[in-house]
């Protein structure tokens, strides 16, 4: 008893001693691998072999930054207006076709922005059907006879990006509006507020957190974009990374530009959180009455139908129609060996990345829940930052340490065996798979964490009491109960891998194409007919993600 009492005061101190266990160690390793590219970018930026920062500041950086800010602000405002307005109309009113439009408005999310850019240029350019028809009707013979807005411009890039990204705002705002009490709008109506006043003074303030979150996602995706700005010849921070790294051969300068992008992204996250810091809305009743839609008849109803159909038409019907017409004109392109190789590369890299990402997220979340230690728990939310980091930044931060490790590994192998194995990691698709895993780890981690949180803690406790090990509890209790969420996470990660362009362009080996890079490569050569089959396959995969989102958000 005396010895036990003497040791008891020391027991609380032992909680602060980190004693490694397999699950904590594995969780820390996974978190370190996810954060490695960002740490690498910081190191390269702070220790450049040749400091070209003064030269960048005096020449190209202001242009890169100005164009990026223009695109971010313009796309955020336009996508926010379209998404919030469409969500308000479909939730608050009933009009012809609303049941269909409610889900059709999500479909532009399946169209990668760079595909929309190729379709818009093909449709509106000098040789496209619009200008050709105008010249035929009006008798014009050349471009000097009439004025037509320049298609490849910053403004057109904003339109394309907003048409592709507004569903983020629409989806979050629609969910927020459906959670509101109808009494707030009834009171506003009784006080004489018209439709616009109810939207501006009641609906928008109450759903501001959802709108702000959607706009922040849109602006992050705008910073990440490479295909649209490269095709429209708009020099942004993302294209600056490609230029400084691949053309000027200056890794430190590219890393310094990447730091500017990361600063913008972190700024967006902070602004989004600060914008809703003081917003607190509580439901006063557990059985509240939802919003009762107002019936719109006559021209008002059809006006609402047209207003909601326009974003869908511009963001989905136009790109699909243009690409499909090219695919029908050249059916032989469907059996092109290059397309088949790109399809296999896409399935292999995307599938492997999805399995690796979801498996690592499953182990990380379970390890954190099992151990309950402070350090792994603190690192859990930090691992989601990869989703906010653009693919070009992750590609830069991943390739440099992988190449250094690859060369060291090859040197050791050569010293031992006398044969040169080549570059085992960066010489193949391994770097692409790792970049995908880091980029989309937040999707898998979020889905897994939410699913495990819904499992009653009594079930794993009972399994451990019956003699199951920690690994056995994971495989026999958690995995069967959350397999639906795990399957959804696998599909969502795979879909995002298929559409990812900047990281793939930076990390792919020579003559290695995925569907996304094949579309970009062929469209950059103005061979949209050759790019059409790959683009349709990418869009078809994107529709899977939209179907999952629609099912998850079904009212």
Plain-language structure description:
The chain has 555 residues and is mainly α. It folds into two domains: 21-50 and 330-555, MetI-like (MetI-like fold, Orthogonal Bundle), CATH 1.10.3720.10; 60-241 and 291-323, Orthogonal Bundle (MetI-like fold). Helix content is 75%, strand content 1%. It has 27 helices and two strands. It has helices at 2-7, 11-14, 22-46, 53-58, 61-92, 98-104, 113-124, 129-138, 154-178, 182-190, 195-206, 208-224, 227-231, 237-247, 251-275, 298-329, 337-371, 374-382, 385-388, 391-417, 430-439, 441-453, 458-465, 470-499, 502-507, 515-524, 528-552; strands at residues 93-94, 294-295. Strands 1-2 form a two-stranded parallel ribbon. Helix 5 (61-92) runs antiparallel to helix 14 (237-247) and helix 23 crosses helix 24. The radius of gyration is 26 Å and the shape is globular. Residues 1-18 have low confidence and may be disordered.
Features of this protein?
MetI-like fold; 2 domains; 555 residues; disordered N terminus; 75% helix; 27 helices; two-stranded parallel sheet; mainly alpha; globular
Strand content: under 5%
Give the uncertain stretches in residue-range form.
1-18
Largest sheet: 2 strands, parallel
**CATH level-two architecture of the largest domain:** Orthogonal Bundle
Q: Which range best describes the helical content: under 10%, 10-25%, 25-40%, 40-55%, 55-70% or over 70%?
A: over 70%
Structural class designation: mainly alpha
Nearest-integer average pLDDT: 83
**Spatial shape:** globular
The quaternary state of the protein chains shown equals single chain
Q: How many DSSP-defined strands? A: 2
């Amino acid at each position: 008893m005396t010895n036990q009492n003497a040791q008891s005061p020391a027991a609380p101190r032992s909680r602060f001693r980190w004693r490694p266990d397999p699950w904590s160690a594995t969780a820390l390793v996974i978190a370190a691998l996810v954060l490695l590219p960002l740490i690498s970018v910081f190191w390269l930026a702070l220790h450049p072999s040749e400091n070209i920062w003064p030269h960048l500041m005096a020449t190209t950086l202001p242009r890169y930054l100005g164009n990026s800010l223009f695109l971010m602000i313009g796309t955020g405002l336009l996508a926010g207006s379209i998404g919030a307005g469409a969500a308000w109309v479909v939730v608050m009113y009933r009009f012809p076709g609303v049941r269909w439009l409610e889900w059709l408005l999500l479909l532009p999310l399946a169209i990668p922005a760079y595909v929309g850019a190729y379709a818009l240029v093909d449709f509106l350019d000098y040789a496209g059907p619009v200008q050709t028809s105008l010249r035929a009707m009006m008798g014009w013979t050349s471009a000097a006879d009439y004025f037509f807005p320049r298609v490849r411009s910053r403004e057109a890039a904003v339109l394309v990006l907003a048409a592709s990204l507004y569903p983020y705002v629409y989806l979050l705002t629609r969910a927020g509006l459906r959670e509101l009490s109808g009494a707030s709008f009834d009171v506003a109506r009784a006080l004489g507020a018209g439709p616009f006043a109810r939207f501006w003074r009641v609906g928008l303030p109450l759903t501001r957190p959802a709108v702000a979150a959607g706009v922040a996602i849109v602006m992050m995706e705008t910073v990440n974009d490479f295909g649209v700005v490269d095709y429209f010849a708009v020099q942004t921070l993302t294209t600056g990374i490609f230029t400084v790294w691949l053309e000027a051969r200056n890794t430190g300068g590219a890393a310094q530009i990447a730091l500017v992008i990361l600063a913008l992204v972190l700024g967006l996250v902070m602004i989004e959180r600060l914008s809703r810091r003081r917003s607190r809305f509580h439901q006063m009743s557990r059985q509240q009455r939802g919003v009762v839609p107002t019936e719109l008849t006559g021209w008002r109803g059809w006006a609402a139908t047209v207003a909601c159909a326009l974003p869908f038409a511009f963001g989905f019907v136009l790109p699909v129609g243009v690409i499909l017409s090219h695919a029908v004109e050249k059916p032989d392109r469907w059996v092109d060996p290059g397309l088949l190789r790109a399809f296999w590369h896409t399935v292999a890299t995307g599938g492997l990345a999805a399995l690796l990402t979801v498996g690592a997220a499953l182990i990380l979340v379970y390890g954190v829940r099992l151990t309950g230690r402070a350090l792994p728990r603190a690192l859990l939310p930090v691992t989601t930052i990869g989703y906010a980091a653009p693919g070009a930044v992750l590609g830069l931060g991943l390739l440099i340490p992988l190449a250094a490790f690859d060369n060291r590994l090859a040197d050791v192998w050569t010293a031992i065996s006398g044969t040169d194995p080549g570059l085992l990691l960066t010489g193949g698709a391994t770097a692409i798979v790792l970049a995908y895993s880091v980029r989309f780890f937040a999707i898998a981690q979020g889905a897994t964490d939410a699913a495990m949180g819904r499992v009653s803690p009594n079930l794993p406790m009972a399994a451990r009491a019956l003699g199951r090990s920690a690994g056995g509890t994971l495989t026999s209790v958690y995995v069967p109960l959350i397999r639906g969420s795990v399957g959804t996470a696998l599909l969502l990660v795979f879909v995002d891998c298929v559409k990812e362009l900047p990281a793939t362009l930076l990390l792919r080996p020579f003559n290695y194409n995925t569907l996304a890079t094949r579309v970009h490569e062929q469209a950059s050569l103005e061979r949209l007919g050759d790019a059409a089959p790959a683009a349709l396959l990418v869009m078809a995969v994107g529709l899977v993600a939209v179907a999952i989102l629609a099912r998850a958000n079904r009212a």
